[in-house]
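Researcher: Next entry in the queue.
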Amino acid sequence: MAEGLLGRKRGMTQIFSDKGQIVPVTVLEVGPCFVTQIHTPDKSGYTAIQLGFEETRRLNKPERGHLKNLPALKHLREVRTTQVDKYKVGQKLNASIFAVGERVDVVGTSKGKGTAGPVKKYHFHGGPKTHGQSDRTRRPGSSSATTTPGRVLKGTRRAGQMGNVRVTASNLDVVQVDPERNLVTVRGAVPGAKNGLIFVQKARKQPKAKK
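Model: Structure for this entry, 211 residues:
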């Protein structure tokens, strides 16, 4: 069984649990995805399948050749699996690979927020508003010493680009699965904007069982 599927984040809402509690959830549209390539140890040196998602009309000749006898798919992604013998090129996968109650990881691209200062980006405290420091409220303060090391060390948190990076939300509970509409509902928030491209996979770091 495939370890994950490509999809789109459709937005957040809330549902009521069996106990009447409000549960914040995110609705994900995953698949349908097509198996576009199969990698085997003899051919590629590893085992994996390549999945294609979201049909499009704009493909160049190399892409059309790669997807011969398949729909014109916009997004391709490899998924590692040890059970490649269960798949064949052209096979269609949908949300039915997920089940209610299991945990998944959702990979997406966080919202880009442009250039941000350290107070916004790293939650710096900022300077005091008294004793002549009224213009230092959102400044980072000193970044190094005048003696050793006498320079700004690599990796020091400074102002810069914020967001627009790959983020993984781990161990989210699957609350609902609707294979007919390719919808998976998970508890909590996932990275990215509404309608953003996401990848949903079986959780890699399962929590330890309670003794």
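Model: Helices lie at 61-66, 118-122.
Researcher: Noted, moving on.
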